[in-house]
Amino acid sequence: MAVPSLKEKLDKIRSPNLQNQKHTAAILEGVESAFKERNTEPTPTAYFAALLSLLDNKNIAQPVVYLLDIVTPYAPQPLLRAKFTQILTLLAPVLSQPDADAPLIRSSIGCLEGLLLAQDAAAWEQSAAVIGPRRAVGGLLSFALDPRPKVRKRAQEALRNVLRNPPPSPSLDHPAAAMCAETAMMSLTAVAEKAAQLRKAKKGSETVHDPELIHALQLVRTVASASGGWPSKNIEPLCDLLLGIARSANEHMSKAVFSVFEMIFEGMADEVASAKLPRLLEVIKELRPAPNDAQLLPDWILILSRAYDVSAQIAPEETFQGLLEPFSIVAAYLESDAKNIRVSASECLVSFLATCVPRQVLVDPSIFDEKVIQKLVNTVEGLLTVKYQAAWLETFNVIGAVFDALRWRAHPYLLGITKSIGEMRSNEAFTGKQEADEVLGKAIRAMGPEAVLSVLPLNLAKPAKGQPGRAWMLPLLRDYTSNTNLAHFRSELVPLSAAMYQRVLDHGDAPKTMEIKIFETVVQQIWSILPGYCDLPLDLVEAFDKEFAETLTTVLYQQPDLRLDVCRSLKALVESNQAIAASAEDDDDPLLSRVPRETAQKNLEYLGTNFSADFLAVLFNVYSTTLPQKRGPVLQTINAYLSIIPAPRLMETFDLVCEKLAAALQEPVVKPKNPSAEQVPSTAHTLMDLVVTMSIYLPRESFEALFKIASLVVFKDDDPQLQKKAYKLIPRLADSEVGRAALEQRHAELQTLILSSAEKVSAPARRERLAAIATLIPLIPQTSLHFIPSILSEVVISCKEHNEKARTTAFDLLVLMGHAMVAADGALIDNSKVPNMPKDAPKVKASLEEYFTMVSAGLAGSTPHMISASITAITRVLYEFRETLSRETMSDLVQTMDLFLTSNNREIVKSVLGFVKVCVISLPTDLMLPRLATLIPNVMVWSHEHKGHFRAKVKHILERMIRRFGVDIVNKHCPEADRKLITNIRKTKERSKRKKEAARNGGAEGDSDAEGGRRKSRFESEYDQALYSSDSESEASHSDDSDVEMTGRRQKQPRKGGNAYILEDEGEPLDLLDRNALANISTTKPGKMRKPGDKKTKVKTDVDGKLVLGADDDEGHEDVGGAMDIDGEEESGVGAYVAAIRGKDVPRRGLRGKLKWNRNRRKGGDEDDDSDDNDDGGMDIDEGAAAKALKEKRGGKAAGRGGRGVQKWQRSDPQRGCPQCISCWAESRRSWASTA
């Protein structure tokens, strides 16, 4: 960030925003007036001298010192050195005032800082007795302990800046560093002793002096952050004092102490200050607390960990060789009974291993390094004894860190530990299986599966007596195997898989038993390990031979369930070696010592020369027989091997595919008999996929055939999917430099192809076609700009596509073409080459205004659809280029759209309202204000239209207008009859504001902030936010189609909880794997049906015998009515209908369509409830009689829209028909009609 100049800072003061700044502005104005009177140039020196002369006046001391603080950093340093005594003498009375205000002191501290930074080494040699820099530093030290936070912070910042910028001298430390350190130590000691004495006198006041203690620690931290760190001779007493404070104080003090140590270490990370580090390490180890000190020991361990972290950065090899002593010291604390000590110790050991093991130990260890590794492993192995049983979880963390740090050097040192943990894991009573699995996984990753399986064999094929099977290790091998020997998989796991699979084959077609299913699972788990073995194998050339390739080919053909794993493995072979081969020269990853770049390049050449062509042939065949949803991994593998195949073999493969594709294109398109069934795509589709995939790797000479294929396929409008694949070819080619060059060379041919195929494009291929055009736009030269108006009408009409992705692509393409016109500003567009334009059409210059003229041509369209699309396109382009478009053009557009608001066509007006919304939001205020007189009345006409959410959209526009132009202006131009809408907006806004304030006062401020953060992320672009954002909560509930067509994206509404319900039988739960499970999932909350044995709850009445409705049921009884219990929230007729047709009390249709009731529904019911059920378990209902009875019940009148007839039927006697509602009767009528 650029530092502001003196002029910029003074400009801010000249135009003050606050009342208290006006006095300062007046002083500055007076100084500058004096400059003008004396013809003095306003330089920093002049400002500085003028302000110094005003320091004698105590009435204006505060604004003068404030201005002096601003000017001092810009004054010449020789002047500051020469005038130091004079300035300090003038500032001393100001600083020594007992009632001095904090702003005055802060400004004075700033002046002192600027003065001290300008002093040289000779000035710093003066003693503190004379008026010099050391006396000024003493003042800063006193202010650094001031109880006022802002004063204290400003003084500490000044001290930090002074100490970090020492004058040129041979010393590492600043000349004042020792003085600052001694003063800080004295202050800290005094405050700590005072706090300790007070705690002894009265135990309840431990925290009385915590603020003073924290202030003193902050001062120590400030001094420690100096350029040379804390002075060497004061390190030991400081550490002793800090650890004493951490021992006797509370948790906050311990954190403050640790922050001081952190600052000391940070200062020592510099090479200049690194000479102090060995002494600091010795001091820290000498100050080790008691082994059972649960309060101080964790902090000491953390300090030790950080110290060795810094040491490893400065001297990595020396730190590793001296790691045994601290490692053993800290490891002994895992025996502690206090959990916090054990956790701190384990974290410290993990930190040692993560930071103190240098790269050289892994790449080329010396004999001494190997001895250190052996001793570290012996220490770690001792942690598995019974003595450390309470810390087994922390021990596992340490062992895992050892594997991560030593990596392949862990073999063979850690084989014994691996075997011990594996045996513990095999014990069924062991409770830490998850932690043990993680450690064993790290062992597999570090030493390789071959080493781990040598001590923990799987024992699956031929289990030995007394040896447990370890099938649980297969998932660990899958997740952690990498960078190992591929030969081990061939020699051990392939035979095991063959043996297991043979047992499955021997079982034949008989129903699978549990044992056979286990064998199948084991086979799948074995092959799921292969991708790990193929991730940068160490022996690719030796292990991956023709025999193994044939094995993989057989698996691909014969075992479809394993294709995914085999494809991932083949792809990993290529991509892992490509990553190493493409790594930077300065990359010091230890992995490069195992597989260097040269070896990775040879591996790729070996695979490409010997196997790529054969594997591609196999993968092509597999791809052609795979369902579309499973083709992704196969196509990715094909892509990987196309990247390494030699050019001659690639050309042979391409020619073969083209030959087959030409034959497939001659065949007629056969539509599937059952489109909903899963089917393998046709041969032409498959081959076209392969051509698109291969295109990026083809040489330039093959592009002739490639473009011929594309020119043939884009005209096949009877096969939309094939057409889509052809259009994908152009963006695919643009991903490579060779393909991009070919597209630039053939731009004229491609433009002709795009224009000639416009009539043949199918709706599903529209998005891909637009994406292809978007790829070509940046590649066309300025001599071919006529291509933009040629395809503009198609892009504009695509803004009204039903497909959301096609609309979005059309909007992006409109913006892209606008930028192309801006970039070609001044170039000529030959309109005679535009289709349907006369041959003598004049040439025009490319410009943004010309582009808007082209887009606006659609406003003269013959159909409302075209006019609406043009308005939508203009809206998007206007929002994008609103800052560069001329005011005249914008004014003409607003005036034109104002006229379109008077149209009677809803589709046109929808788009115009979107345009108005963007204008109100983004166009200049002075441009929009003159148009409001006609714009607002025309908009308000549509506030009475309820279809298509016109009213909601108009309300949103008015909200935006009120927010931007003010309620008075909007109210002035609004018709008298429509001003009630403005009143409604105002009241809604006030109500919302009151709710927010109430929520904030109620402690919900955090929730509202979080909600606001989520609201920001709802919009995918600035344009979406401009269209969608609103203060109205009701606006979010209206999904306005015009907003959708403005952006091409349908705004996602936040889900308010789940709205799907599972309907289960009482006997068994729903099987979600069943094909018919979807039939039992409802979007309506099911009601609780009354059980047959339940008694009806009698209705409530008051003392006069009248019904009591809507009263709370405090006794917890069921709802009145007793038939069924429906949630109070479910008030819609749909809920009643669903409950009525699915309940157990619903009549069922029997033989010949007769309705039958459940004969047991009254069993155990109320004795007063009469029953007319027939003996055969149901009663027959005469449909005609029921209809006649219903008509009589209604009094011969049809039920109106108010639903009175329905209400009467629901209140009728339950014995006359279905007791729920008329919906059941209507369902019965429909069923009867269908059976009849």
From TrEMBL:
It comes from the Eukaryota. Keywords: Nucleus. Residues 986-997, 1149-1162 have a biased composition (Basic residues). It holds the Pfam family RRP12_HEAT. The keyword Coiled coil does not apply. Residues 981-1061, 1083-1128, 1148-1220 are annotated as: Disordered. PANTHER family: ARM REPEAT SUPERFAMILY PROTEIN. This is Ribosomal RNA-processing protein 12.
